[in-house]
Amino acid sequence: MNSAMFAKDIYAGRRQRLKQQVGKGLILLMGNEESSMNYRDNLYPFRQDSSFLYFFGMDKPGLAALIDADNDKDIVFGDDLTMDQIVWTGPQPSLAEQAAPAGVTETMPYAELGKRLAPAIAGGRTIHYLPPYRPENLLKLSEWLGIAPSAVKGGVSVGLIKAIVAQRSIKSAEEIVQIEEAVNTTAAMHLAAIKGAKAGMTEAQLAGGLQGIAISGGGNLAFPTILTVNGQVLHNHYGPTVMREGRLAICDSGAENAMHYAGDMTRTFPVGKKFTTLQREMYDIVLSSQQAAVDALRPGILFRDVHALAAEKLVEGLKAAGVMKGDPKEAVAAGAHTAVFQCGLGHMMGLDVHDMEDLGEEYVGYTDTLKKSKEFGWKSLRLARALEPGFVVTIEPGLYFIPELMDQYRAEKKYMDFINYDKLNALRDFGGIRIEEDLLVTDSGSRLLGKPLAKTATEIELLRS
Ligand SMILES: [Mn+2]
Fold first, then answer.
1. Which homologous superfamily does the CATH classification assign to the domain defined by 173-464?
2. Which residues, including other chains, have CB under 8 Å from residue 73's CB and lie 6 or more apart?
3. Exposure letters 236-264 (e unless 16+ CB within 10 A, then b)
4. 424: CA distance to ligand 1 center in Å?
5. How far is the CA of 382 from the centre of ligand 1 (A)?
6. In this structure, are residues 128 and 160 in contact, taking their beta carbons and an 8 Å threshold?
7. Maximum distance among all alpha carbons in the chain?
8. Spacing, Cα 53 to ligand 1 middle (Å)
9. What are the boundaries of each domain within the chain?
10. What is the pTM of this model?
11. pLDDT band at 3 (very low <50, low <70, confident <90, very high)
């Protein structure tokens, strides 16, 4: 499969900017290899490294590149297919033909890469590389750099990480087109889930169809689907559990499109036709929190503050329901909201569903002066820094009634000023609720990405009827 690429100038321009920002040295970007599942030739679906895709657009295994900041040179390393391989895969463009649309004119066999690096290292040149997240790339780096695998992590280039984060954080107009395509496929998956759910079905029966929609959209799932009637477990995927009338189902799923841009949405809906009174009351609390967070998005605001605002809205709603008490701001400052909202409000999204998470949350979501909290709840917030036009973020507050956690908090007499434990305990079998949308930060506020999908309880019930 030949995947789509942006215009040549876009890749050349991105690399030019990267060279300027990194300043000097050799930038080594590694593509991914095929990955074996249960024996060598039975492979996971190939997924290229996202930074490699961003700077080269070449969606094939077995590639790596050197970007020479001192001599303004870009070289792609890889191997043309042998006849033995062509028999199985069919003819493929040559390496030079693959590199040309990325604006790269110099290509070399993969084995040349180590030979190029050795004299550069001996000559004292800086080799900038990213943190590897796949074992084969870790081992290759170890060999090329002549250091133990355990020492590779310590040598990653913070300058390169920061330069890439600076570029990839701001989505260009042509990237937004791709993301919206992925979000629209994602919305189609959710529509199918909401309309297709029936009491008596298993979670897996409903989840299976969603992957088909993602693949039909030209790509695949952006991440393993979460589809469960036990939404209080934050990353509960799906299984043989039969969905029964009276439960709420959470579906958190997304597609990536042919160019590997992601969509990521969540909807919560009744397995029966209607929300119960209590379910609707809790749903509306999450909805008002989600809407308040969306309304707060604008350049300059700290995402950490948007997270706090969303948490305050949850507490405010639960206070009206008698489950929490006291001042919502004080409750959130004390951490009492973590009894029901244990995760972060959202994350960046782009070529990765958690965009650039491989580069390190401290660089993607935080800054040199804004550091991540180590406290429960807050430590799961992937993004905290000030928003800028061009950021794409998810907004996904939720309420999660986790019996083990409420029992522990109660036993420890935690947050007694803010939580009515008898009322909270009555919700121990409720499950969970999450609502998630993808938004682009604009010059003045934000814009919802993709076609709107049913979100209020009434709109969802209409689809269930
Ligand atoms: Mn998400």
1. Creatinase/methionine aminopeptidase superfamily (3.90.230.10)
2. 66, 67, 106
3. bbbeeeebeeebbbbbbbbbbbbbbbbbb
4. 26
5. 10
6. yes
7. 73
8. 22
9. 8-169, 173-464
10. 0.97
11. low
